[in-house]
Write a structure and sequence with these properties.
The protein is an alpha/beta fold. The protein is 35% helix and 19% strand.
């Protein structure tokens, strides 16, 4: 009897463990005012990670600028109310990252010293430091997400190292990134090679050689294997558009994802889940609800 109880206890702990540390969905929020607010996004219970997008101007001596589309205007100091939402999300165990870069903007790092300055700015303005100017209010985000698609490819590895160093003296700074699926990523390759990324959500879309095309899973699965066997990172995520119109190409019907792709990629010990672009498009399609139970 006692042996049976012990086995049951072990089974319960195993199930709890898989729930707590299991895989999940990362979502980008902030680029469409019609996608619901941040509190509502976290209240769905569907997302483990939310990337607040984008700080799309920084570096090279520029005054950094945050663009949250129709949600609020950081320049007019109307986004500080988001601190309440940030704390709510974190109380639910959700990690929130500030996404820097994006497909539209003006950003680059001019030198190692520039990377150090940008790291100090990010730490003091959005993370665990202090500044008289905090666009999102006094709450601290959990980390920085690198979605570098434009400009110079240099010094991002230095920015990563400086950010991680801040986390050693206070609240941990999570480092995440969204490289394109051609390996190695042209903009983030050197940064990812630091081995300091906690999560890497690879964009398996808008890149035909390494994405899904109708009836062909070979390219995406081969690319997934390359990333998960080569990159040193905490976990690797399958980055996907949440609707057909969310990207130029690479959309995977939910039934194909759950039946043909997830069963294969989940075998990797590096598997962390799925990243979706974006909350707005997911609202239109219901994609996250269609795949959640299969993750």
């Amino acid at each position: 009897m006692s042996q049976l109880l012990s086995l049951l206890s072990l089974l319960i702990l195993t199930l709890l463990g898989s729930t707590v540390s299991g895989s999940g969905i990362a979502i980008y929020w902030g680029q469409n005012g019609n996608e619901g607010n941040l509190t509502q996004t976290c209240a769905t219970g569907k997302f483990l990670y939310v990337n607040v997008a984008f700080l799309n101007k920084f570096g090279s001596g520029q005054t950094p600028e945050l663009n949250l589309a129709g949600h609020c205007n950081p320049a007019s100091n109307t986004c500080t109310f988001l601190s309440e939402s940030i704390r709510y999300c974190q109380s639910k165990g959700i990690k929130l990252m500030l996404a820097i870069g994006g497909g539209i903007g003006n950003y680059s790092l001019a030198s190692k010293a520039d990377a150090k300055n940008v790291a100090a700015y990010l730490w003091n303005t959005y993370l665990g430091g202090k500044s008289n100017s905090r666009p999102l209010g006094d709450a601290s985000l959990d980390g920085i997400d690198f979605d570098i698609e434009l400009g110079s490819v240099d010094y991002y590895e230095d920015l990563v190292k400086y950010l991680v160093a801040y986390g050693k003296h206070g609240k941990k700074v999570y480092i995440t990134g969204a490289p394109q699926c051609p390996y190695p990523d042209a903009h983030l390759g050197k940064a990812i090679n630091t081995g300091l990324f906690d999560y890497v959500w690879v964009q398996f879309y808008n890149n035909p050689p390494c994405q899904y095309t109708s009836g062909n899973t070979d390219n995406i699965l081969n690319s997934w294997t390359k990333w998960t066997t080569t990159v040193t990172a905490g976990k690797i995520f399958l980055g996907l558009p949440a609707a057909t119109r969310a990207a130029g190409s690479g959309f995977i019907p939910a039934d194909v994802l759950t039946s043909e792709i997830l069963p294969v990629i989940k075998k990797s010990p590096k598997y962390g889940g799925v990243m979706l672009w974006s909350k707005y498009w997911d609202d239109q399609s219901g994609y996250s609800s269609s795949i959640l139970s299969s993750l």
